[in-house]
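Recall the central idea of this unit: under ordinary conditions, the amino acid sequence of a chain determines the structure it adopts. In this exercise we apply that idea directly, starting from the sequence alone.
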Amino acid sequence: MNSNTLLSVLVHVAFYASGLAQDVPESICSGISFGILPHPTNCQKYIACVLSTASVNECGFNFVFHPLVSFCVPRSVYQWPNEAQPTPSPSTEAPPSTTNVPEVSSTPSSCQESSWEPIFCRGHVSDLIRNPFNCTQYIDCKLATPTNRECPPGKVFSLPYQDCFPGDSGRCLLKPIDPSFCETRPDGNYPHPYRCNRFVTCFRNSARVESCLPYHVLNPATMQCVKGDVLGCSSLLSQA
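Accordingly, the structure predicted from this sequence is:
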């Protein structure tokens, strides 16, 4: 979800959400321009912060808020125990009961976490997929239990290359080559710093990025494009 979409959603929530922040501290959104926070006592709810103003919102039926992905997910993914029994009004005497009903806390600790990654791996066509909420992370779907993993600092996940490359995490874009790449290099062709199906042509200290033909990769030893798959260059897929 890009920043403009998130902004639109949060503004919509701020104006049209039915629940105001009546059961959370007024300061919970202090200093937060836009963001989504878990509710402190009820995992079926979440808090939308817009310009430091909080509004409490509820997930849909049979959905709960998952704090790791900042999204409402099915109960089966982030399990919510049985609802607590309602407390009788002080003015109403509760009828005697012969059944002991255990009290269930509605604190976040009662939200029993289970794996959320499998829901995104259903029907996947690649071994690794990008975390839909964070491009610096990816989900390894080839494992028996799909697992969310993080790219090294300063890198973002590239779905076509199935690898983590230098990039801008704010805009989820790969980083271009350094403008000074050719300043100290003689004219000629050089391997691209991280894309194995591309190379850099240096001419009079200026750089131009060139691409191999589809289904070809660069052989650094000969500086020729040969038949190959970019997935064979992935440092992540090569990890057993």
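The chain is about 10% helix and 30% strand.
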